[in-house]
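Reviewers of the previous submission asked for a worked example of the structure-prediction workflow described in the proposal, so we include one complete record here. The input consisted solely of the amino acid sequence. No template or homolog information was supplied to the procedure at any stage.
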Amino acid sequence: MKNRISDPRGITPVAALVRGGTSFLICGHVRPDPDCIGSQLALARGLSRLGKRSELWLADPVPENCRFLPGSERIRTPSADGRAFDAAFVLDTPRPERLGVIADLVRGMPVTVNVDHHPSNTRWAAHNVVDPHAGATAELIHALLAELGVSTDRDIAVCLYAGLLTDTGRFCYSNTTPGIHRMAAELIEAGVKPEKIAENIYASARIQKIRLLARVLATLERDGALAWIRLTQAMYRESGASPEDAEGFVNYARDLEGIRVALLFEEGADGGSTRVSMRSRDARINVDRIAGRYGGGGHGAAAGAVVPGRMEDVERRVLDDVRNALGGA
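From that input alone, the workflow returned the following structure tokens.
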């Protein structure tokens, strides 16, 4: 039977698990972001300083804007692996399906530890360090490393700060708590240069990304407090961009004056599914619940889902759901 930890953070027993082990797997979700990757790398660095071994897996390549993070070259995508690990850490991942092609390999590990801050988390692992009130998974990794007695060196600080910066929307979202600012101050004291991290993540765009953005913004539509944009496979081909270049595009619609909910509809590679990214600026409209109707999830203000169906059909259904939510708020 799985050992479900009653404490929502459950950090102390997981720290004991680490102390008793020698070899660990650390992995995260598909289309990884800086919080996912930064948390992986910070944990790996902390384990190394404790004399532990670790391997890092992802189903997708490390995005360009995360390759500056110390240790990112260690992350790989295995097709099969017979190695035994004492435990598999799964970070920033509310459901095992979000692991993509490595999901079955991870499920086969003897012990799984899920560290996450998504409200939609299903507490699916053997051990669950889950706190929906945390601003980022990096905040939970910071707490775990502190429990393990690992001081924050510069490499750990850079990786954790990247997670904080991005998952709080550059410290602009409502999850930016006093604790987040205190943690950010500690990381800066450990050697983080905020301007350098911001430049690497936000100000190092490839020309292909800008060409893709121009095409996407040309599709912008608005209906009162609702705005949405579209991204097709043809746009990827025409611009030479890749899916990682589209991360954050939905925020351009979100940032329009008077908008309460913004959506990005992205055509799937096979044309038979649509990825929907959702953002809410109204606390009364929980996009996590809307995404949940389509098998997705996330946070109240930021969520997403991959929905079977042609983009036109999915767009019609999701827009109707959002309009109903706006009307009832």
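The two ends are 42 Å apart (CA to CA). We consider this example representative of the routine output the project will generate in years two and three.
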